[in-house]
Specification:
Blueprint (H helix, E strand, L loop, with lengths): L5 E5 L19 E6 L2 E6 L17 H13 L3 E7 L2 E13 L2 E9 L8 H15 L4 E6 L3 H9 L3 E2 L5 H6 L4 E6 L4
Parallel strand pairs: 6-7
Antiparallel strand pairs: 1-4, 2-3, 4-5, 5-6, 7-9, 8-9
Length: 184
């Protein structure tokens, strides 16, 4: 795909299936294990494969569409990044997971377009939705890959010494981070 202008805009519910356009493959050589506010690196081959387009397992397109729909049905807002008509990034924020706290529930940028500012722009848009809804902090259960954790930390997120129990129960192997959203 030739690089072009990236447009960020809300996604309609019937566009959530376009997540299949995102190439989630990633070479991962280090993951982190979270122990309180400390992160312990674990080297290995933790690489992420492409979406399973046919199956119904954890990394299948149908499973992720259902997950996105669940977030949107719970009041979440989905935002997409488009380049040359293709979805190259997608994020979802759920305002008011708890009073004053939003959840950055999902964030994907297609392989080959990571580190191009698309994730940063999606995060800023998702954080603005949360701030405009009245939340003053945002939390994320992040894939524990070195690249992902570094991305969030560069964006002002800090490791939570005590993850939210409801998020930890769903994603105990993730790295749990938070960020204050500041004033509106």
């Amino acid at each position: 795909m030739t690089s072009g202008e990236v447009t960020i805009r809300p996604l309609a519910a019937d566009e959530l299936g376009r997540i299949a356009e995102i190439d989630r493959t990633e070479q991962i050589g280090v993951i982190f294990v979270q122990r309180g506010a400390e992160l312990e690196p674990r080297p290995g081959d933790w690489s992420a494969p492409a979406w399973d387009r046919e199956g119904d397992g954890e990394h299948s397109v149908p499973a992720h569409v259902r997950e996105l729909e669940r977030y949107v049905d719970a009041g979440g807002v989905a935002i997409g990044a488009f380049e040359n008509g293709h979805l190259v990034g997608l994020g979802v924020v759920v305002p008011h997971l708890r009073p004053g706290t939003a959840q950055l529930a999902s964030l994907y940028v297609t392989s080959g377009r990571r580190d191009a500012g698309i994730g940063r722009r999606l995060c800023a848009a998702l954080e603005a939705v949360a701030r405009d809804a009245g939340d003053d902090r945002i939390v994320v259960s992040a894939t524990p890959s070195e690249h992902t954790v570094t991305f969030y930390r560069r964006g002002g997120y800090e490791v939570m010494a005590e993850p939210l129990p409801e998020l930890y129960a769903r994603e105990p192997d993730d790295v749990h981070l938070e960020k204050p959203l500041g004033g509106r």
